[in-house]
Amino acid sequence: MTETFNYFCKEFTWPGLIFSIFVNILSSFMFIFALLYLLKPKIHIVPLIARQDNPFDGSDDMVHVFKIVNRSWFGAYDVEVRANYYTITQGDNGIVNKLFNKIELVTNKMNYLNPKKPKKNYGDHCAQFLTLEDLVHQIRTNNKYVQFQVTARHSLTGLSNIKTFDYVNGNYVKEGLFKAGDYDEVLQ
């Protein structure tokens, strides 16, 4: 025992200790940031809004639909979406302000969104959220923009992620239905 201690004391140097501590701290930070990057939910917001007939009431009322896709290999819990109109105003001091007004969605929460599954022809990792408001009219006549935001938690670690997309003009709105699955297309 004393021979081992003597050997350790003989091989000990301050620069070696400082280098060892530095390398351990650096590798810990790299591991944590890699973990945080890899294990946050990867939610994709489709950069289009589908304008279609209401699929639930059988009437000719038009609805606007947003689509999200879970592109991570783990499920997403507590998925919550928000949609807002916003206008940009400039204050007297030259600072630009955004004024928000809520868009009512028919459903804005999901308990669970399935993970992306390779080689499976099924779209259960995608979800659509609709509103009864006439977004096209608001965007084109009132110079309002639409902001869509998704918040989700990772099923394994509980890490959350917030994803936002701004629809800044009426060109983002397309007539038709979203193509099923992991596609960013609206079928006419």
User: Major sheet, described briefly?
Assistant: 5 strands, mixed
Helix-strand sequence: HHEEEEEEEHEEEEE
Mean pLDDT metric: 85
Using the coordinates above, name the CATH class of the largest domain. Mainly Beta
Residue ranges: pLDDT <50 for 5 or more in a row?
none
The CATH H-level superfamily of the largest domain is G protein-activated inward rectifier potassium channel 1
Rg (CA only):
25 Å
Overall tally of domains = 2
Number of beta-strand segments: 12
Structural class: alpha+beta
Number of helices: 3
Query: What would the principal axes of the Cα set say about the shape?
Result: elongated
Question: Approximately what portion of the residues adopt beta-strand conformation?
Answer: 35-45%
What is the second-level CATH architecture of the largest domain? Sandwich
Q: CATH fold name of the largest domain, please? A: Immunoglobulin-like
In angstroms, what separates the terminal alpha carbons? Answer: 80 Å
Helix content: 10-25%
Keywords: Membrane, Transmembrane, Transmembrane helix
Transmembrane segments: 12-39
